[in-house]
Each structure stands twice: as C-alpha cells, then as structure tokens.
C-alpha cells in the first residue's frame, strides 16, 4: 500500500471517529434536554354494593349492566321458600291465638251458662227443703220429741245445702263473666306476640326485592339467574357517576406545590385535548412496602409515594371510572423539584 492510500485510510478513520463523537455528543445533548414530566392518575367513582338480608335464589333481574337506574328502583327479586314457610306458620299461630282471645272475651257458651244456672236453681231448691226440715226438727227438739243427734244431722244437711247453693252461684257467675282479667290480658298479649312475628316475616318478604340505594348506573352483576345467594352477599354494583374524583400516585419530591385545596389542570385523553380543573382534597402517604424507591445510586435520597385525590371543580360530562387523567408539569433537567402550574385560592 502506497503512502497516498495510507493517508486516505487514516482520514477515513478520523472522519468515522469524528462522526461517532458527534453522534454521542448529540445523543448527550438530547438526553440532557428538558423532558416533559407527567403525573398520571385514574378516575374513580363511588360504588354501592346491592345485597339482601334474606338468603335464597335469584328469581329475576330487572336491570342489566349499563342501565341507568333511580333510587328505589327494584333491581332483583329473590325467591326464598323459607320465608314463605315462616309466614304460613305465623298465620296459623295467629289464628290459634285469636281463637283463644275471642273465647276469653266472650266467656262460656250459652249452653254452659244455662247449665250452670240450672244447677244453681237445683241447689237452691234443695236448700229450701233442708231449711224447712231443719226448722221442724228444731221445734221438735225444743219440745223434747227428737234427740240432739237427729237435730245435729238435719242441721248439718242444711248447712251443706247452703254451701252447695253458694258454690253453684259462683259457677254460674263465672260462666256469665267469662275468663278472668288476667286470662284475657294473657290472650291479648299472645295475639300481639304473633302479630309481631308476622310483621317480622313481612319485613323479610320485603327484603326479597332489592332496590337501588342511589341514582346511578349498573356497573356489574355478580350471580346469575337461579343461583343461590347468601345473606349479605353482593348481587349487583351501582356506580354513582355524579360522585367522581381522580387518584394520583405522586412522589414526595413532586409535592412542593401540591397542597390540599390547590387547583390544577388535567387532561383526559378519552375526552379529547380539553383541560379540566380539579381541586386537591386528600393527600396521604401510601404503604412503604409498595411505594418505597431508593435513589442513592445517583446521590439522592429515598422517596415515598403519596396518594393524592382531586375532585373536579365542575361536573365533567362523559367521565367514567378508569379513565386516565394527565397533569403536565414543567420540563426540567435533573432537579428533583418539579414545579406544577397551579392556581392557589
């Protein structure tokens, strides 16, 4: 190879090396340029779980996923044979208690009253006979015609007839008056007790119909028609789209200008490029087991992540849970402090 060729190769090598240096320098320049730092979050909304107090099987769904419902709308009907069986038992007990109560109030039947009256009259007739016999024997005894023993026997019979009349009169009065006040009160209390059981079963019956607790949208249905659900098991989820907010996971070195009450602009890609104003309502450190990040390899310090919640200042049409929200911050180089544009009230 002659000298001219060697010079050409050397120049080509130098040119290649120069090109590499230029490329590395350009990469370094672009790498050191300020970049757009984004904080992204997610839209959330209050969700209500619809569940029942009565176990049973899903008889019918009256709303589908995505349906708009109003507070109080019936969403699910549960079939519970146990509740119907308890109602039948309670109604039978009610009929029995009512019969006992009526009997206590009405007293004895007419035939019983007539029978007691006849026994009383019979006892009175016997008393009259024994009274006359006693009076005759008493006079004869006073004359010395009969013995004292005979007189005592007749007197005992007369006294017994008087007691019999009193007993018969008492039975007649009891038949006329009916049961005692205590028995009447006990019968009425039994009726009231059974009424309470019926009311309890009626409430259980009403729990078969599950209604919406709020105006919202059916987000999810858990069981299928015919499946068995237990007491308190969630059957349906209702989301209140009017009660929405955003949740952001923010490193603590980005919190200097984010305070409770601060307002910031967010962009929601699903809704276009329009900016929406949100207000920070909640800041709390997240668990270290999931958010601790070491930065000692570049000479900085360990940082934690904070949960930041912000609510829209005005309702955002078509906002749905799960939509991404982006907060655009100023571009910087390496400073850990990233300034966010906010309007503080």
Please give a structural write-up:
Helix content is 43%, strand content 26%. The chain is rod-shaped. The two termini are 79 Å apart. It folds into three domains: 33-45 and 241-343, Elongation Factor Tu (Ef-tu), domain 3 (Beta Barrel); 47-80 and 207-236, RNA polymerase II/Efflux pump adaptor protein, barrel-sandwich hybrid domain (OB fold (Dihydrolipoamide Acetyltransferase, E2P)), CATH 2.40.50.100; 86-202. Strand 9 and strand 10 form a beta hairpin. The strands form two sheets. Strands 1, 3, 6, 8, 9, 10, 11, 12 and 13 form a nine-stranded antiparallel β-sheet that branches. A four-stranded antiparallel β-sheet has the order 5-4-2-7, with no helix packed on it. It has 345 residues and is α+β, with helices and mostly antiparallel strands. It has six helices and 13 strands. Helix 2 packs antiparallel against helix 5 and helix 3 (110-143) runs antiparallel to helix 4.
What amount of the residues lies in strands? 25-35%
Radius of gyration: 49 Å
Oligomer: single chain
Order of helices and strands: HEEEEHHHHEEEEEEHEEE
Count of folded domains: 3
Percent range for helical residues?
40-55%
Our count of helices gives 6
**Roughly what is the average pLDDT, rounded to an integer?**
75
Layout of helices and strands, plus pairs?
Blueprint: H1 3-32, E1 38-51, E2 56-61, E3 68-69, E4 74-79, H2 81-106, H3 110-143, H4 148-177, H5 181-206, E5 209-211, E6 216-221, E7 228-229, E8 234-251, E9 263-267, E10 275-285, H6 288-291, E11 305-312, E12 324-328, E13 342-343
Antiparallel strand pairs: 1-8, 1-12, 2-4, 2-7, 3-6, 4-5, 6-8, 8-11, 9-10, 9-13, 10-11
Helix pairs in contact: 2-5, 3-4
């Amino acid at each position: 190879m002659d000298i001219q060729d060697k010079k050409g190769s050397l120049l080509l090598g130098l040119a290649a090396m120069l090109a590499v240096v230029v490329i590395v320098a350009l990469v370094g320049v672009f790498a050191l340029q300020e970049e757009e730092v984004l904080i992204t979050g997610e839209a959330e909304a209050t969700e209500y779980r619809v569940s029942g107090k009565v176990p049973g099987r899903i008889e019918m769904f009256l709303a589908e996923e995505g349906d708009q419902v109003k507070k109080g709308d019936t969403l699910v009907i549960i079939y519970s044979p146990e509740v119907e069986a308890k109602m039948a038992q309670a109604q039978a007990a009610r009929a029995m208690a009512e019969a006992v109560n009526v009997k206590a109030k009405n007293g004895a039947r007419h035939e019983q009253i007539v029978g007691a009256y006849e026994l009383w009259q019979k006892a009175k007739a016997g008393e009259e006979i024994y009274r006359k016999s006693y009076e005759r024997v008493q006079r004869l005894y006073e004359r010395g015609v009969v013995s004292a023993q005979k007189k005592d026997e007749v007197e005992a019979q007369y006294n017994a007839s008087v007691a019999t009349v009193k007993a018969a009169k008492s039975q007649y009065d009891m038949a006329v008056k009916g049961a005692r006040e205590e028995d009447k009160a006990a019968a009425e209390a039994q009726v009231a007790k059974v009424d309470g059981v019926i009311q309890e079963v009626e409430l259980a019956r009403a729990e078969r119909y599950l209604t919406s607790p709020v105006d919202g949208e059916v987000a999810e249905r858990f069981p299928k028609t015919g499946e068995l659900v237990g007491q308190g098991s969630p059957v349906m989820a209702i989301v209140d789209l009017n009660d929405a907010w955003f949740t952001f996971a923010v490193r603590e070195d980005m919190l200097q200008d984010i305070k409770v009450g601060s307002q910031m602009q967010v962009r929601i890609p699903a809704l276009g490029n329009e900016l929406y104003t949100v207000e920070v309502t909640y800041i709390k450190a997240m668990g270290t087991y999931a958010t601790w990040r070491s930065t000692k390899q570049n000479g900085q310090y360990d940082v934690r992540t904070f949960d930041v919640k912000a609510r829209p200042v005005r309702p955002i049409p078509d906002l749905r849970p799960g939509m991404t929200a982006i907060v655009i911050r100023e571009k910087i180089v390496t400073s850990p402090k990233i300034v966010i544009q906010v309007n503080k009230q």
